[in-house]
Amino acid sequence: MTDAIQGVDVIVASPGRNYVTLRITTADGIVGLGDATVNGRELSVASYLRDHIAPLLVGRDPGRIEDIWQYLYRGVYWRRGPITMAAIGGVDMALWDILGKRTGQPVYQLLGGRVRDRITSYRHAFGWDLPALLDQVDERVAEGCTHVRVQTGVPGLTTVYGVSKDPVYEPAGRAPLPAEEGWDSESYLRYFPGVLAAVRDHVGEQVGLLHDSHHRLTSNQAARLAKAVEPSNLFWLEDVTPAEDPEALRLVRQHSTTPLAIGEVFNTIWDCQQLIEQRLIDYIRTAIVHAGGISHCRKIFALAEVHGVLAAPHGPSDVSPVAYAASLHLAAATHNFGIQEYMGYPDLAHEAFPHAWTFENGALQPGDAAGLGVDVDLDLLAAHEYSPAYLPVARRLDGTVTDW
Ligand code: EZ4
Ligand code: CO
Known about the structure:
globular, alpha/beta, binds (2S,3R,4R)-2,3,4,5-tetrahydroxy-N-oxo-pentanamide, about 15% strand, TIM Barrel, ten-stranded mixed sheet, three-stranded antiparallel sheet, 2 domains, 16 strands, binds cobalt (II) ion
């Protein structure tokens, strides 16, 4: 076969932060790019790709995207989980990239074409205290953002998810061991609703406000929070309860009309099934890289469409500009798309992955380049070596390990 897969390279590098990048090359010289980054577990997914997937791909027809997906997923007894599914996700997006480049079409065109002119985004704002938070909210609104995620410091806690001591939030710390953070849900529950109400007063009714509880509350605490913030009219409340327990959201649903979003740590459609089918959520947050690529997320979003749930993929800086492009192409062609998180990237990441996608005035565009529309500067990656980074670990004030 003249256009068979010939080379599979896995590059672990750190252009501003760590990324696992996959380059699939065909015999006739087309290069497809994929991202398979799992924040803080980069080397595991690189090994899965190099040691167990690359040998299976060489010689195959890169146009058989669904067959390769099924082979890599169903052809393995030990399947699912973040490492496996990110590896498959990276391969899948690289194959869509190849198909786009071979046919001269942007990937969104191959997925059925655009259903919208622009992709609405939300960005992050945080502050240790209210004035600092309001400053960041104002900056985002001045940038043209119509939707802003708000995260606040909590009196009595020196570390809080989503709030940084640096101007830019980046949760993974560059150190041989994870940082340990302290957490107290009751302090947070007492404080957050008042801050949100003050932000709402400040920005008026037009700006969509979002908030992420990072899987830390019990079902009852989450229900209390969802109810307490109703007057502030949140666009969504994200990850209020632990992700493994879909039933936990039922109580929240029964007690509040605050829209609920979850799914950034889900890896397959089966992780989403109960939440979507039983309409326990409003937004499904699977990331293209972490849930098996474009092919699998498309199925998740189709299931969501049947049940009135909107797609809102995870978009932190640990989803590389390559996977981010995949997210935008899918968003452009998905009718039940809701909103796309845009956390932004370090300058070096933009340089390492020159991209056709754009962020302007609060809106994103996938661009019209063939394939995903992302390139890679291999010299720049070679010049910025991987160094270990970990997401933090959290403990309650009595020292018990809790969800970070
Ligand atoms: O903590 O991507 O909605 N965004 C998030 C992120 C996650 C990180 C983990 O790698 O919850 O900030
Ligand atoms: Co989140």
